[in-house]
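Field: COMPLEX_INPUT
Field: COMPONENT_COUNT = three
Field: RESIDUE_TOTAL = 986
Field: MODE = joint
Values follow.
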Amino acid sequence: MRSACISRRALLALALSCGVFASFAPASAQDASMPLKGETVRIYVGFSPGGGYDAYARMLAPHFEKKTGATVVVENRPGGGGLTALNQLVRAKPDGTNMMMLNGEGAIMAQLVKQDGVAYDMTKVNTLARVAHEQHLVLVRPDMPDTLKEIQAAGKKIKFSAVGRIDNLSDYAAVLCEALKLDCQIIVGYKGSKEAGLAMMNGEVDALTISDGSGNEYAQGGKAKVIAAIGNARSPFKPDVATVYEQFQLAPDRKWYMDFRLSIKDFGRVMVAPPGMAPDRLKYLQQVWKEILTDPAVLAEANKSQRPLSYEAPETLNKTIKEILESLSPDKIKDINEVLQKKYS
Amino acid sequence: MMSRGQIIFPCLIFAVVAALLASGLFVYRYSLTVIGFPLGAGVFVCVMCLVDIAMSLTGHEPKPPANDMPLEPLSWAAVAWAFALVPFVIAFGFVFGAALYLLTYLLANGTSWRLSAIIASASLLVTWGLFIRLMRVPMPVAPLWW
Amino acid sequence: MLDAFLSAGGQVFHPTVLAAMLFALPIGLVVGLLPGISGISALAFLIPFTFGMEPLVGLAFLLGSYTAVSQGGSMTAIVLGIPGEVPNAATVLDGHPLAKQGRAGYAIGAALLASALGGIFGCLILILLLPVMQPVVLAFASPENFFLCLAGIAFIGVLSSGAAVRGLIAGGLGVFLSLFGYDPTEGIPRFWFHFEYMLDGVRLIPLALGLFAIPEVLALMTSGKQIARGDSIEPISYRQGFQGAVAVLKHWGTSLRSSSLGAVIGVMPGIGGVTATFVAYAMARQTAGNPETFGRGRIEGVIAPEAAKNAEEGGALVPTLALGIPGSSSMALLLGGFVILGLQPGPEFLTKHLDIAFALAIICAFGNVVASASMFMLSKPLMQVTRIPGRVLAPILLVLVVIGTYSAQNNSYDVLWVFIFGLLGIAMERFYYSRAALLLGFVLGELIERYFLVSLKAHGPFFFMRPIALTIVALVLLGLLWPNRHRITRLGRPA
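Field: COMPLEX_OUTPUT
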């Protein structure tokens, strides 16, 4: 009886280990037109579940699965302001099974100002597609003047709220103040953009530069008013609000920082892959994402869940990166650092 | 001696906190805004540790209230067993490492083969079935050194 | 407004809505029982299932599971001494000693009724405040939040029963540890020593689990005996649970005070659940007789944090619905759920969808009650857990803790840190340094720095000269000095 038990156990153990090893074995012959079929693809998100990047990744994952036949897992890897995940991505296998829904603007800025903890090089990271990018709006309290011109003329000190020294909120506030020569103080240290918005609503600060989606929300209900859009075009959320460029005729040197920040904005939220990918695999992925992000059905679904998509091809994006990261002189970078981080604190 | 044991902990805390503050001030040279609060909290902790050590040495150490349930003594074996989970997980991954650990621990501590096997299999079900498949937690199944 | 309320009632008590809530409850209960996994994970897991649901059905689904999670977390805190969610750490202080005395059912019954009542109270506050939400939420800016956090820290002294110096060391160490990682204004990571993991400093879940769970597991492994080790262990029955429930009604003052505190703290978007539970616990200690018996099985020490926690979550819906500003991190996730369901919380929401807002409050209250009742039916098996021999229970717990910790942020290093903080927890337990004080200091320390620096920048050095801020200071002083009031009044009298 005992030997029968042992041999039964041995068989069970053998079967188990075979199963274990089988699951680690590489997939059999691939379908050439669908090289990722049957594979598990990971999309890293540098933030905890519930945020915008997470929402975009989870919204797009099923579409990627359908197109490639792969199984997609969205992996939240919060840390380092979303950059730890990028550090991990660039060390991952560049075979198409690892991608990241990246805060492209933040990644570029962090590399530019040589922030602690940056272990990636955006010029080497493979860009697959831009998923979305946001216009920014200038919001002020209801009791402030109605136009930027009046605010500029009044000459009083204006307080902006922001989360960190190089986040969207403080960047746009800084370039706005630089362009219009406003007397600004950017108060950094709020826990998140919602808290920064709350600070404006309860009077702790006077103004806020925030993405148009959020800005539109805050403006409803009378606790804030939108007085300008920052960009080359008006925001689809507030088409009747003029841009800063429309309201003011700015000299080139004053405009420079705003233009610079807007060029980074064009990078937006991007889908990226590790460096060193085989060219044909890279082309395949770029094609898949292009198809997904320009599909009318997907666009409609995205609009319905208030997460609009705006595709941009990787070639344009790569050009932007090169311009920003490679063609700026060290002096100019120092100036940028000065304006964005120190001047208005 | 009771006093000796009592002062090791505050000494350690003092040493660690002081070392960290020193690194912040002299090696990394953080600015005042950056080091301000840590310095305040750290100095407070260090001062309190010194007070604590002084109190222990002069016999004023806090005594547990009389009708407190006595704390169970800890054995080094238990500590070793608890920390042993780490090498199991590293060597065999979360799913199999946990199951093997359970099997090993339970058998070594006198539980029957049947119950141990049941518990180990349940662990496989929970880690793989509930966490990885159902809750989509990206827990690595492969060994961590792979 | 009344018709909105009635309409809400009609909508909630609709079969599909109720079914959604009841279906989500067990998921919440299970998630709550697993240490390390928090309500946020449950919500994140469930949100995709709500695609395509009717708004109210989807919300019932999410809120239903959410209310259940905290019930589950309280159970592990009492039965195992392991907080299921970090705010449950306050329940461990008196709940687990009761379990060790073989009176787990008593603590469970009290915890369940206290949380049900606290939850209902929180929802009542929500309903009452709905019309006037905005000015209330907007009255609290950074200076007020700063003083609230300071108030929380002040109660650390209260938590360190008789060993004041050691309690202060623990609290101070907690504050110190919270400051690792990125600093709020410069963005420079402190004490990271070029380890990527340390860019964000010490993480909450490994700290909380390490401090509380590892020493418990080790004790079980050493003794090999069951958790219930007292001299006179009562038999397992529902009777214990009913006695616990009766205790909540008997100590109605504590229940009411803690619920109010929780609801008020919940309304303020800057402060979280941990503060509510610990401050409620400390307040209960201050106002009850014989404060030195707390920490050894005082039932008020279970009632207070439980009532406060659930009231806090009801209160946290206030800023979430009024302004679209999440009152807690789980509310942030819930907001995501709202958007998916086609709703947009904020000022517009209350004018356009007041009935849905009321419906949410009703679902919250109802969910609390049903979750408590369901958990009560599970109380017998839970009590059984305290009778499982340690040599079987301990390794299972350890595995659950490790898996739960990993699941929090998908980071293997978190698991390593659980063990490192476990060592800290063991030392602190042996030498009577309050782990609760460290946890509270950890949660509040970072907030205090942040609010202080922002207040200074935004309002200048006299930022404290504001009516609400000064009121908070006055209330805190009152709360701290209350037990000594007789001594103080005697000081005024001639000898």
